[in-house]
Design a protein that fits this description.
Layout lengths: L3 E10 L2 E11 L4 E5 L6 H9 L6 E6 L2 E2 L5 H4 L1 E4 L11 H11 L4 H15 L14 H13 L5 E5 L7 H18 L2 E6 L2 H7 L2 E6 L2 E6 L1 H6 L4 H6 L6 E8 L4 E4 L2 E4 L8 E7 L4 E3 L8 E10 L4 E7 L4 E6 L10 E6 L5 E4 L5 E2 L4
Parallel strand pairs: 3-8, 3-9, 6-7, 7-8
Antiparallel strand pairs: 1-2, 1-4, 4-5, 9-10, 11-12, 11-14, 12-13, 14-20, 15-19, 16-17, 16-19, 17-18, 20-21
Helix pairs in contact: 3-4, 3-5, 4-5
Length: 358
């Protein structure tokens, strides 16, 4: 296992900044996910950690010691790829055993460890098969087995579930979480899928355009996004944004012609954006002075819940998530309760979060 620290780490390809200088700490035994859209620098960061790329500036420390000058092998990391990268002509047994066979480990020891890993991943019945005879989920387990058998200090995962169907991805997320608990090793997992990041991680680091925007627990990032991009990127669907006005030195917010009294918001009076998660908007049983009039545009039934798209009189579009059994149709007039005590507020010009006081 290893504690990892990145200090002012950056990477340029020619004149292009793939990764701007960043500092990041990953605790020993932590499950860290690196999350962001395509092209944000996630894979570049993983390649720097693995030693496949050299940084332009900065340092990488494993347990307080720099590994910048060390090769991938010397860093003692295991890389699990999106493409599995299995040897098609070798059996599952030989694919898993390969890292030990290369360093000429005793055959009895190899056999012992292969069966231990296969038992851990529940693939003992597949050891004699070739990769072409396996499903996508089984191939991913074999790729994991080949990484595990090395007993590395750090596991690096580059979008390993993206080739699987939705149901299998859900199953494999559960298995990865269990595996992490059993191995107690540092996991660093790159993904563009915020559902994967939220369900797997102890800590999430969000990248955009090569910049580290926010680091925190899934709950922290969901409830207190550092900016509007994170609010929209995290959550399915993402956060709703509504034009609002901060008045009386932050003591009150005007939104859709309603005045809401809140704890002090840090910021000068003026235009702001209010961010509300879909579950923080409720359909009112009846109109009252605090409700917001709206018109139903779309109702999407998802079994145990429904997503309802509405338009307010000020032409704001909102998505509501509700478990209520509602008989609604397009163009129905309804009233909304907005729980602004759980809202986030953002500077309209910069998109940065405006903290709410106690």
């Amino acid at each position: 296992m290893a504690e990892i620290k990145l200090k002012s780490l950056s990477k340029k390809f020619g004149k292009t900044d793939a990764l701007h200088p960043l500092d990041l700490e990953i605790r020993d035994g932590e499950f860290m996910t690196i999350l962001g859209p395509s092209g944000c620098g996630k894979s570049t960061l993983l390649n720097l950690l693995a030693g496949l790329e050299a940084p332009t500036t900065g340092d990488i420390l494993f347990d307080g010691e720099s590994v910048i000058e060390l090769s991938p092998k010397q860093r003692d990391v295991a890389f699990v790829f999106q493409s599995y990268a299995l040897y098609p002509h070798k059996s599952v047994y030989d694919n898993i055993a390969f890292p030990l066979a290369v360093v000429k480990t005793d055959k009895k020891e190899i056999d012992k460890q292969v069966h231990q890993v296969a038992q851990l991943l529940e693939i003992e019945n597949l050891l004699e098969r070739r990769p072409k005879e396996l499903s996508g989920g089984q191939r991913q387990r074999v790729a994991l087995g080949r990484a595990i058998i090395r007993r590395p200090r750090v596991f690096l995962f580059d979008e390993p579930l993206s080739n699987l169907d939705a149901q299998l991805r859900t199953q494999m997320r559960t298995e990865l979480k269990k595996l992490h608990r059993k191995l107690k090793t540092t996991f660093i997992y790159v993904t563009h899928d915020q559902t994967e990041a939220m369900s797997l991680a102890d800590t999430i680091a969000i990248l955009r355009d090569g910049n580290l925007l926010q680091t925190g627990t899934p709950e922290k990032i969901y409830k207190e996004p550092a900016n509007m991009f994170i609010g929209s990127f995290i959550g399915n669907p993402g956060m709703n944004f509504v034009n609002a006005e901060l008045i009386e030195n932050g003591a009150k917010v005007k939104l859709e012609n309603r005045i809401f009294e809140l704890s002090l918001i840090v910021g000068k009076p003026g235009e702001i954006m209010a961010g509300l998660r879909p579950e923080y908007i409720q359909i009112a049983d009846e109109k009252h002075p605090g409700t917001i009039p709206a018109r139903v545009e779309v109702v999407e039934h998802l079994g145990s819940e429904a997503l309802i798209e509405v338009t307010t009189r000020n032409n704001s579009t909102l998505i509501i998530r509700t478990a209520q059994e509602l008989d609604l149709s397009m163009n129905d007039e309804i009233s909304l309760n907005l729980d602004l005590s759980k809202a986030s507020f953002f500077d309209k010009s910069t998109g940065s979060n405006l903290p709410i006081g106690e």
